[in-house]
Amino acid sequence: MEEKEIKELTSSLLDRSIDADDFKRLQIAANSSSTDRGAITHALKLAIAQGMLEDKYNYLQDKGTFQYRYFMEPHEEVHHNFSRSRFVWLAAAVAFLLIVPLCSYLYFKSSITDEPDKVSFYAPTGKMLSVTLEDGSRATLNPNTHFSFVMDKRGGREMTLDGEALIEVKHDISHPMTITTRGMRITDIGTVLRIKAYANERLSTVSLLKGTVTVNMKGTTLKRKMGRNECLHLDTYTHRFTVDKLDNSAMAADMAMMFFDNAPLSDVVKTLSRNYGVNVSLAANCTEKRFMGVFSAKDDSLSTVLEAIKTVNGVNVKKTRQGYRLY
User: Fold this and answer.
1) Is 108 exposed, middle or buried (0-12, 13-18, 19+ CB in 10 A)?
2) Which of 144, 244, 246, 303 is deepest in the core (most CB within 10 A)?
3) Secondary structure string (H, E, C) spanning 111-132
4) Of the candidates 158, 162, 149, the residue with the CA atom closest to the CA atom of residue 179
5) CA distance 148 to 169
6) Whole-angstrom Cα distance, residue 302 to residue 122?
7) How many CB atoms lie within 10 A of CB 191?
8) Dmax (CA) of the chain
9) Among positive and negative, which fits the CA dihedral 236, 198, 118, 174?
10) pLDDT tens across 141-181, in order?
11) In angstroms, rounded to a whole number, what is the distance separating the alpha carbons of residues 107 and 102?
12) Is 141 in contact with 129 (CB distance < 8 Å)?
């Protein structure tokens, strides 16, 4: 931690203007590095000593603590007991430095303990990840997916998703699950659903395999209640969506399956790059082209998918040092 920052934080600590985040930063610095702890100790000693020399502190009898005096007023008894006060406050400074962790717990107890713990997961390119959550819900993450879950003390549950996942939400009618992702906020009391919503892709989809959910389109007042075996397609640019029936729910539950429903080629190549772990790029003159098809990343080779795109869209495929390029 920089010397200037230490001075600013210790000063705000002493005049009681420090907030919870800055106090936590100061505590972490003090506990993680002997160098920072020494610098913080030194800064506090200097600040307190200087503050008393300049008569900037008042003792609050009813609260048993001290505060920085904002309005400098001559005070006869302060000067009368100056040396004693100086000794008391120096002793208080040393005591404070010895119990920083305890002070932080007591001072910010309510704000810290009220914050629920968030767990986060990431499935890297070319890999899938399966997780079981605190409430019993489960998720299978497709490659290059960021996923987090938090449950508060009252049982409230919330997920955030940037990517693609098959999610089995533990049924709890009293504590609905909220799933936030690109373009959508989904309310769920217990279902099985597959969501594909990458932050860098235009289309987001929700395939509901079991139960019912309510989907709110972010940035609009639009919402849609979905039933079993329905699939919602959202264009995040226009906020327009369509809903149709799933042809095969068992296939939709297979996370190796790739569904391209009139998808922009720009989104298609991103999916192929993630699932096969090979860079697939697209020339600028092909970005407006679209593709339909269903493939398995497990059973169909990348060459097979690229050949299908070449046939349907009339594009060329070239192998490069980095992978493949469509042009």
Assistant:
1) middle
2) 144
3) HHHCCCCEEEEEECCCCCEEEE
4) 158
5) 14
6) 23
7) 19
8) 95
9) positive
10) 999 999 999 998 888 899 999 999 999 999 998 999 999 99
11) 9
12) yes
